[in-house]
Fold 3-dehydroquinate synthase.
Amino acid sequence: MDSVIGVNLPEQSYQIAVVAGGLDDLGVWMSRLKLGKKVLVVSNPVIFKKYGERTLAALKLVGYEVSTCTLPAGERYKTLKSVQKIYDVALENRLERSSTVVALGGGVVGDMAGFAAATWLRGINVVQVPTSLLAMVDSSVGGKTGVNHPQGKNLIGAFYQPKFVLIDPSVLKTLPPREFRAGMAEVIKYGIIWDAELFDKLEAAKRLDQLRYVDEELLSLILARSCQAKADVVGKDEKEAGLRAILNYGHTIGHAVESLTGYKLVNHGEAVAIGMVAAGQIAVQLKMWKSEEAQRQDALIEKTGLPTQLPSGLDIDAIVDSLQTDKKVKDGKVRFILPTQIGAVTITDQVPADVIRQVLRQMQVS
């Protein structure tokens, strides 16, 4: 079931097309947008080997002049050094203001390609073609771009909206199961923060730990509802002045876990799952959320094959210290997104450090 979702913004609205087999029509979709003739495809070697030729053929079919830049795969390469490589290829191929960067890959590629597009010649077009579930439901939509600083995740970046997002669910067939589960963490997040009906549908599914157990209808629903939830939130608050911060549910402690493990031990989705369990328990401790609903959330996370405990050997004081570098810190206070019911959350900076420590201690592997 194909669908087109609109992201309505004051300065630049755009569409997200969810189309099985749509990768082969990428050039056709882009040609409707009247973009310039030069296109730079940014990817990583693994994805490019699988989908590079099809992408280039789809672009050349309608007359685009295409150049390519492949960057090493992995969160630890999400740095200014990698973005410099994109700039070098852009310069070499004389990209102009009307030119377009196509991000073909997961969230890391999308974030870096988007940031390069935002900053090259003070901004050229970017089209997102996400190939991982996590990128499809989350990072490719909404215009957050950026790279990591050695001291913290995504500290360098810009809000820069794509011209178009093309989601082809058929490319998920080659996604490793662990990466599929990582994407499901963000899907569960939408269920908790925005869409109780989506949460119910996920609860009703027999298995969610691998793509092969998710039928086509449920996958279509997961993609469409997640993108719609993100589009709704971003449409109301593009630059994260308030409401958009709810999209960071599970990310506050999640980002700390990721950076303290050097982006090698847990992937982004696993870290978000751990962060959601922590946020849920904090909300229960503060009497903001029923423990039965927290148990439903944690059971769904477990059903998806995601972790609910901290990686062993992680220092709790280090996690609490790391929270101070989070982008949501305001006046020195860490802002948490905490659930009040399934489908609704609130933003608060009134979370005592001893409650955070107590919850993290409970989540340590015994």
User: Anything to note?
Assistant: The chain has two domains: 3-174, 177-205+220-362.
